[in-house]
Specification:
The structure holds two protein chains of two kinds. Chain A is mostly beta strands. Chain A is built from four helices and twelve strands; from the N terminus they run H-H-E-E-E-E-E-E-E-E-E-H-E-E-H-E. Chain A has a twelve-stranded antiparallel barrel. Classes of the chains: A mainly beta, B alpha+beta. The interface between A and B is large, with 52 and 60 residues. Chain A: Pfam families: DUF5777.
């Protein structure tokens, strides 16, 4: 009997304490605090590091979202130093038309055709690491690009092709970017470009380049972008040297976003708009006015089911 | 001796009945959607990760959601919503804390019209609101449904003149929360 009584007493005491804890009138803010305890804030993926899948010529870490199609028109006029007769470059133009599609939110494929060298390009781009809003893990976003391009110019005395394999070039690139707060995003792009046949016979077939790029937000819808690709072959030396006719590519520009479009306006010393061309074939120099002004227009279409909620 | 046991038991009963009253209910996968309709463009988004708590003792209610969890059919809109309008990196969440004004008998099944009075925080701006909805008591489950209008300008959400015809002055918002007893 005594032990039962003892137990009941303990139980009562326990329930009393437990009960009083609950009886204590709760403030609504305590309820929000309790909600935070039950469901703590999770680290989220950082989004919108760049406004577009390109910084200028080179790729950014961004990919097109699942079931979305990006229709891109990239356009470069002639060089600024091409004289009055050429209206300082406006008479000439090179264009790349591209269709790029998101298979998942992190995996995209794309194909394009550049009028420069009549070159087709196909690429696959996969983002495998997301920068997170908090925590020390994942300080950067990392995306991988693999691309193949085919030169379809007629064979000519200056550029003779003996078979189709010689027309192919390959690119592998890692994009590593971090968004430093709302305004500044920086990216580095270690890149390898391999040309089965080079434009000039004394150029190295395989190029090792390091790209650096970034954007600075000027307002919610405009950014200033810069990008530089350094080809490091001459540092390696020993038969890896480049033809001295070729230059590194520097580009400066602005992104302007208007609803469904992103307009990218820029100047660059490269005429080409794909990795193989702007890393491999750039011959013009900034200081001599060998500058191409140009723009990219990106229009995104959603093929997601138009659900209404 | 017997009397002592009796008192104890009575106390126990009273307290059990009291703790019954102070039961809290939780909803972990609540839904909140919004819809903006203009002749130019319809915009809609759905968040299915809203969390909420109800304290049935005093009718207090708390709701929390992450802005980034709103899913749009058009991902570009979603990006702009987060980056340009709600600025979700600066203001990652939206909360409501308030009270259900009506006295509801949570022990009986039934459907009640309710008013939730309290503070809503969107885009870092707090506003006092009265939200109307229905609360259904269904055994151990509570279902809270509400529909209300939100004006972006009340929450300092800037809409540029370029897209002013594409975004409604008042956005209609719907919520549905299904609660279970918090153990």
């Amino acid at each position: 009997m005594k032990s039962v009584l003892k137990n009941t007493g303990k139980l009562t005491l326990f329930i009393l304490l437990f009960g009083f804890r609950h009886l204590h009138a709760q403030d609504v803010d305590d309820l929000l605090g309790e909600l935070d305890e039950i469901s703590p804030d999770q680290a989220q993926n950082i989004t919108a590091t760049f406004k577009s899948t390109r910084i200028i010529n080179g790729h950014s870490i961004e990919t097109v979202a699942k079931n979305h199609l990006d229709f891109r028109i990239s356009h470069r006029f002639g060089t600024l130093n091409s004289g009055y007769n050429n209206l300082f470059g406006l008479d000439e133009s090179r264009i790349r038309i591209g269709l790029e599609y998101g298979i998942t939110d992190d995996l995209m494929i794309g194909a394009g055709r550049s009028s420069y060298l009549k070159e087709y390009d196909y690429f696959l781009k996969y983002r495998f690491l997301h920068q997170k809003t908090k925590g020390l893990l994942n300080p950067v976003t990392v995306t991988l690009l693999v691309s193949v391009s085919t030169n379809t110019m007629d064979t000519s005395p200056t550029m003779q092709f003996f078979n189709n394999l010689e027309r192919q070039s390959y690119v592998g690139q890692l994009m590593i970017a971090r968004k430093f707060g709302e305004r500044l995003s920086l990216e580095v792009n270690p890149t390898v470009v391999h040309r089965n046949k080079t434009e000039t016979p004394i150029d190295a077939n395989t190029l090792y380049a390091m790209g650096v790029g970034g954007r600075l937000k000027l307002s919610k819808r405009t950014t200033f972008n810069a990008e530089y690709f350094y080809v490091a072959n001459n540092l390696i030396g020993n038969g890896f040297e480049r033809d001295p006719a070729f230059r590194n590519n520097l580009s400066l520009g602005f992104d302007i976003e208007t609803g469904g479009h992103v307009f990218q306006l820029h100047i660059s010393n490269s005429r080409g708009m794909i990795e193989k061309q702007f890393i491999g074939d750039t011959q013009d120099e900034w200081l001599k006015g060998g500058l191409y002004y140009g723009f990219n227009i990106s229009r995104i279409f959603s093929f997601d089911k138009k659900e209404k909620h | 001796m017997n009397r002592l046991i009796k008192t104890n038991l009575t106390l126990l009963l009273i307290i059990i009945s009291m703790t019954g009253y102070t039961q809290k209910y939780i909803c972990k996968n609540g839904e909140t959607s919004f819809f903006s309709e203009t002749p130019m463009e319809d915009i809609s988004a759905l968040n299915t990760k809203v969390v909420s708590l109800i304290n049935t003792e005093d009718g207090s209610l708390a709701v929390k959601m992450n802005i980034i969890d709103f899913e749009f059919p058009n991902k570009l809109m979603q990006e702009h919503f987060n980056e340009n309008y709600l600025e979700s990196e600066k203001y990652p969440k939206s909360v409501f804390s308030g009270k259900i004004l009506e006295k509801i008998d949570f022990s009986k099944d039934g459907k009640h019209k309710v008013t939730g009075q309290g503070n809503i925080v969107i885009h870092g701006q707090a506003q006092k609101v009265n939200l109307e909805g229905t609360l259904t008591v269904n055994g151990d489950q509570l279902i809270l449904e509400a529909a209300y209008l939100i004006k972006p300008e009340d929450y300092n959400i800037e809409i540029p003149s370029l897209v002013i015809t594409k975004i409604a002055k008042e956005i209609s918002v719907k919520s549905k929360f299904v609660y279970n007893k918090l153990s």
